[in-house]
Amino acid sequence: MTPSSPRPRRADGPPSDPELARFLRDDLGLADTADSAGAAAWTATGTVWVWRGGGTADSNAAPPKAVWYFLTIDGDVAASIRAVTQATRRGFGSVRVTARIGTTSWQTSLFPSKDHGGYLLPLKASVRKAAGLEEGQATVSIALA
Fold first, then answer.
1. Of 2.40.30.10, 2.40.30.100, 2.60.120.1440, 3.40.30.10, which CATH number belongs to 18-144?
2. How far apart are CA 123 and CA 126, in angstroms?
3. Are 107 and 67 in contact (CB under 8 A)?
4. CB-side exposure of 32: number of CA atoms within 13 Å?
């Protein structure tokens, strides 16, 4: 590698760029974003909310067929995820993660949302039931998958 070559990226975790590490530590206040396996990890608290698709203004219409629950990941956590995953995002800008609420853990993707200013974490029915989630506050731990 020549001095002008870009730094190699570790395949097992976040970029090894010292400037990025400084940014995460100093600018975002994240002393250590790595879990014991070396992957980036965060904890976020947000509001569980419901999206009801297929709705209409007609009061005689059938109830919506699609109902999805989400938790919004925003603020410093979203900025940190965005910085760490800049080169590894997938389709639609999604980020593969392992999420945990309480003792319930699952693999999913975070989806960027301009409307909500961060990422959306979809909460499938089995996760909501196991964790006892309804609309309202929840805390989630997220690690890059």
1. 2.40.30.100
2. 8
3. no
4. 5
Residue by residue, pLDDT tens for the chain (145 residues) are 444 434 333 344 444 556 665 665 566 555 444 443 446 789 998 889 998 876 555 656 666 677 899 999 999 998 988 888 876 777 777 888 999 998 999 999 999 998 888 999 999 999 999 988 888 888 888 887 6
Q: What amino acid is encoded at 115 in this protein?
A: D
Pairwise CA distance, residues 108 & 51, whole Å? 18
| Longest pairwise C-alpha distance within the chain | 69
